[in-house]
Amino acid sequence: MEFEGNESWGYNTAFHLALDKFYGTPSKFKELVDTFHQNGIAVILDLAINHAFGRAPGIRMWMNDEDANGWGDPSTENPYFNTEPKHSYSVGAIIIINPN
Fold first, then answer.
1. Cα dist from 68 to 64, 71, 85, whole Å
2. In which region does residue 70 sit, left (phi positive, over 0), alpha (psi from -120 to 50) or beta (all else)?
């Protein structure tokens, strides 16, 4: 999963099938996995498929991009990243509570 920044915990994915630059080049990563397999070690990759950010195609196809700059929030018509809750619990919202 490739991310738009230099660091990520996997929750701001832009391209789900692209290897993140943190893991090195695709050929070096393949070499690492092949070496593990040759030594009987399985490789399991964790994927946060329900998270996407910014330039991800699933976001861009249904986004509110009022100034046409390629950035915007998901629209309410987005079938995959709908930020309007249809139930009593929060969806895609970060709530910051100021204790002061």
1. 9, 7, 26
2. left
Give Dmax (Cα) for the chain: 57
Percent of residues, the chain, with pLDDT higher than 90:
16
Asked whether residue 37 is assigned to any structural domain, the reply reads yes
Structure tokens at 9: 């915990």
Residue 96 tokens read as 């910051």
User: d(Cα 23, Cα 32) in Å, to the nearest integer?
Assistant: 10
> Are 41 and 72 within one domain?
no
For the chain, the domain total comes to 2
Q: What is the mean pLDDT of the chain?
A: 73
Structural domain range at position 21: 2-53
Q: Give the CA angle between residues 33, 38, 27 to the nearest 5°.
A: 30
